[in-house]
């Protein structure tokens, strides 16, 4: 289609640090670690990078955040911030620069270091921009709890039914995260423990909320021709199929008709991404996905917004295991935000990294010893999704990557 990014750029290499409470390293250490993993994977040197985009919410201003630790002076480097879609937007901008023919080899990288920087959690869930009297939805747990209470009421779920559904989401992510040696949380947790955990913002309990982490992830983006040459004799490059980002009207806190059972901005971004990637039946055509499970209810609602489940029916798919690692459409194969972790400026590229490994058949590169395989069988297309802000007003990213010809 005119203006489409589909198959015009490819990923030649990627890297990702271990996420967690990383008292042993600072943001510069993370950037060097992730970038050099990506350089090695792509078979390039730092000097081959013609331009770079660095995404961070909390760990540096200007492009010098990246140029100094990587010793990349004088090349164009852009700092990107777009709430929880920060890394994905850095990746998107890097892809457009290659697709435009300006550069052949670029770096997209995201980083955040929260744990010993004076920040103990995220902000109030609002997004930067012009203020108005009813702009804030409160702290994130409160803002997203409104999705749960409204969804339960709309579709006739008792507290017990709804709570079991959202805890089943988190249980699945802990099963997947336990297999991943780079994940922040690497332990399975019994479902009953999750259901009975301390309440944070009713009905969201402790295990319905993701943690805030430290870490970095990086991607080398090139033309398809360069990627094929760089990866000759190795696993194939991964092609970008769609990149869409959409901004909410941010009217949810003062619009009495605002519907807290879905996020319209996700629906719009997904629709555009499917059109760009020529996807007509996402439930059948998408092989796997990493979505923004900042809270368990967010993942549940997103399954419907992305067209993976019919409206009001996601509970059936969650409880049946449809989204489990061995299900028809695996979600959060690396543990998601819930278990892999959430350094805000890095999460979007971390999601793409997981799709990249799975598509190349290399997911067990990160397998914890003694655990069953975490490799998805014969994946062709992977989707990533970010929600930055709160349901009432957010920045949404939906991207699709896949193998050549998919």
Descriptive key words:
single chain, 406 residues, alpha/beta, Peroxisomal Thiolase, Chain A, domain 1, 2 domains, 9-stranded mixed sheet, two-stranded antiparallel sheet, 13 helices, 11 strands, 33% helix, globular
Count of β-strands? 11
**Continuous helix count:** 13
List the strand order in the largest sheet: 3-2-4-7-1-8-11-10-9
The average pLDDT value, as a whole number, equals 94
Q: What name does CATH use for the topology of the largest domain?
A: Peroxisomal Thiolase, Chain A, domain 1
Bin the strand percentage. 15-25%
Could you spell the SSE succession in H and E letters? Answer: EHEHEHEHHHEEEHEHHEHHHHEE
- The shape, in one word, is globular
Examine the secondary-structure arrangement and name the CATH architecture of the largest domain. 3-Layer(aba) Sandwich
Distance between the termini: 16 Å
Q: How much helix, percentage-wise, in residues?
A: 25-40%
Low-confidence stretches: 124-128
CATH superfamily of the largest domain: Thiolase/Chalcone synthase
Q: Radius of gyration from the CA trace?
A: 20 Å
Could you characterize the architecture of this molecule?
With 406 residues, the protein is of the alpha/beta class. Helix content is 33%, strand content 17%. It has 13 helices and eleven strands. β2, α2 and β3 form a beta-alpha-beta unit. The chain folds into two domains: 10-116 and 214-230, Thiolase/Chalcone synthase (Peroxisomal Thiolase, Chain A, domain 1); 140-210 and 240-402, Thiolase/Chalcone synthase (Peroxisomal Thiolase, Chain A, domain 1). The protein has helices at residues 27-42, 64-70, 86-99, 140-154, 159-177, 191-195, 224-230, 264-277, 282-285, 296-305, 314-320, 336-339, 347-359, and strands at residues 10-16, 51-55, 77-80, 105-112, 199-201, 204-205, 215-222, 238-247, 288-290, 381-390, 393-402. It is globular. The strands form two sheets. A nine-stranded mixed β-sheet has the order 3-2-4-7-1-8-11-10-9, sandwiched between helices. Residues 124-128 have low confidence and may be disordered.
């Amino acid at each position: 289609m005119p203006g489409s990014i589909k198959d015009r750029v490819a990923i030649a290499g990627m890297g990702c640090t271990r996420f967690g409470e990383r008292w042993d390293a600072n943001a510069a250490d993370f950037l060097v670690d992730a970038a050099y993993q990506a350089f090695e994977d792509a078979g390039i040197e730092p000097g081959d990078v013609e331009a770079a985009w660095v995404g961070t919410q909390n760990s540096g201003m200007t492009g010098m955040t990246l140029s100094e630790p990587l010793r990349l002076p004088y090349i164009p480097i852009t700092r990107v911030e777009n709430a929880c879609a920060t890394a994905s937007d850095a990746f998107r901008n890097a892809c457009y620069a290659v697709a435009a023919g300006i550069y052949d080899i670029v770096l997209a990288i995201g980083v955040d270091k929260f744990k010993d920087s004076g920040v103990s959690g995220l902000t109030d869930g609002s997004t930067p921009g012009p203020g108005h009297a009813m702009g804030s939805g409160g702290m994130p747990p409160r803002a997203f709890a409104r999705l749960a209470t409204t969804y339960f009421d709309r579709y006739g779920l008792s507290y017990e039914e709804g709570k079991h559904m959202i805890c089943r989401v988190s249980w699945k992510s802990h099963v997947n995260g336990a297999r991943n040696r780079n994940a922040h949380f690497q332990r399975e947790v019994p479902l009953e423990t999750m259901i009975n955990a301390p309440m944070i913002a009713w009905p969201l309990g402790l295990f319905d909320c993701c943690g805030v982490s430290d870490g970095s992830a990086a991607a080398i983006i090139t033309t398809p021709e360069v990627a094929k040459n760089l990866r000759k004799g190795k696993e194939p490059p991964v092609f970008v199929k769609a990149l869409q980002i959409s901004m909410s009207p941010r009217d949810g806190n003062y619009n009495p008709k605002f519907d807290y059972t879905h996020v319209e901005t996700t629906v719009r971004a997904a629709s555009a991404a499917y059109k760009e990637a020529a996807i007509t039946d996402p439930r059948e055509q998408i092989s796997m996905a990493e979505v923004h499970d900042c809270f368990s209810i967010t993942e549940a609602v997103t399954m419907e917004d992305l067209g993976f489940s019919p409206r009001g029916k996601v509970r059936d798919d969650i409880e049946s295991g449809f989204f489990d690692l061995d299900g028809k459409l695996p979600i959060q194969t690396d543990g998601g935000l819930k278990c892999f972790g959430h350094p805000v400026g890095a999460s979007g590229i971390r999601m793409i990294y997981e799709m990249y490994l799975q598509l190349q058949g290399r997911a067990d590169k990160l397998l914890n010893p003694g655990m069953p395989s975490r490799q998805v069988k014969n994946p062709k297309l992977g989707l990533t999704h970010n929600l930055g802000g709160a349901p009432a007003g957010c920045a949404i990213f939906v991207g699709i990557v896949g193998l050549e010809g998919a």
